[in-house]
Amino acid sequence: MSCSLLQSLKTFNDRRYLSIFIFGIASGVPWVMIGSVLNAWLADEGLSRSAIGLFGIVFSVYSLNFLWSPLIDRIKPLFLGQRRGWIISMQIGIALGCVAMSQLTADTHLFYLALFSFCIALCSSTQDIAIDGYRIDIIDESDKDGLSAASSVATAGWWTGFGGLGAIPFFLVDTPYFYWPNVYLLLAAAMGILMLGTLLAREPAIARERLLESAVSHIPLSTKNRFLTWIKQTLIAPFAEFFVRNGVQLALSFLLFIFLFKIGEAFLGRMSLVFYKEIGFSNSDIGTYSKLLNWWVTILFSLVGGMVNIRYGIYRGLMTAGIAMAASNLMFAWIAQSGPNVTLLAAAVIVDGFTSAWSTVAMVAFISLLCHRAFSATQYALMASLSVAGRTFLAAGSGFVVDALDGNWSFFFIATALMVLPSLYFLYRIKDKIQHLEHPPT
């Protein structure tokens, strides 16, 4: 077994994975800007749990980005190519949004905080479309192991941005020299540095027009009007091809599983910062354990999860992650009973980091496996949007749920653990289809 895992590790010995890692960081940092940092800022200003939860509605953009994702596949920017051109354009928008938020205060500019949070989310979700397309395009279609390796590196990068860089603001605001608005200037500078990685990355060499012709050859989209044909091939073909290739019933089964898999984790994640503060953890505790420790744990298990997926398959990776995800949520119920115990917090963060990393790597590899290369960004965005939908539309009401439970955090976390079970049932139902995709008959 150890020799097999060491053999899997050799898959990572490729310069392309460095670019994928840097792009992962660029995807994770905006979630700090409009997620944990904004939540902590609003909590320190005394906003209610319900109000803070409602700010999460800006994340709905991530669930809807599939609506404009076809444009990312078809419209080529004037510089840096199809993928990198879109990525760096959106990174500029994110940095400018941070600069704008640094000039605001939560007590008098709440509307503008929400507005610029939305702008950052819009640019970030569009950046993610291009980054996901880049990751799929840069790996050879026949290299199934490469997809798992790329997924694990991307996850490690995301958590480096979200956990590693995301820890710094919590340490800074515990000093007398920094306040939350100043943090956004630092985050804008971090995004500026990440732009260098975009400039140095290699653009994927994809014969996109030839792939498009092959993909739509069995779908009646052509008309006498060239513009109408372009519209159909851009907006309709990516979704039609997915359902035609898989069949409606199987395609819907895939999508339903993707939607259900991370709902429990989303409810927990949306309220975690509020929970930490109500229980009595300091900003430094949050930075040390929830961010820094979680960062290293997630990087480790992202790479291990990738190697396990390479060795044992995506289905086993998903099933293991789902069971562990339910168990990790129960750890937070334990903290709710024990109070601000940093040892228990560290244990919960380690377990949660393992499950989050493992489940994300397996899910990213699974979604990537389902995509056609002609529509890699569009089809990935469609399925990733469903995966994020739970943490946006549904989890935005998590504050109301805690309020309805009269602040009973233990019961809330037990409920989030039970939310995982329906997705595991659907995963078992599509087991054979997943294994067929991983190892198609020759």
From TrEMBL:
Spans traversing the lipid bilayer: 20-42, 54-73, 85-104, 110-131, 152-172, 178-201, 250-273, 293-310, 317-336, 342-368, 380-402, 408-428
Entry annotated with the keyword Transmembrane: yes
Keyword Transmembrane part of the UniProt annotation: yes
GO cellular component assignments: membrane
GO molecular function, one term: transmembrane transporter activity
Subcellular location as annotated: Membrane
Principal location listed in the UniProt entry: membrane
Keyword terms of this UniProt record: Membrane, Transmembrane, Transmembrane helix, Transport
Membrane topology per record: Multi-pass membrane protein
NCBIfam families documented for this protein: 2A0125
Protein name, per record: Major facilitator transporter
Organism: Alteromonas australica
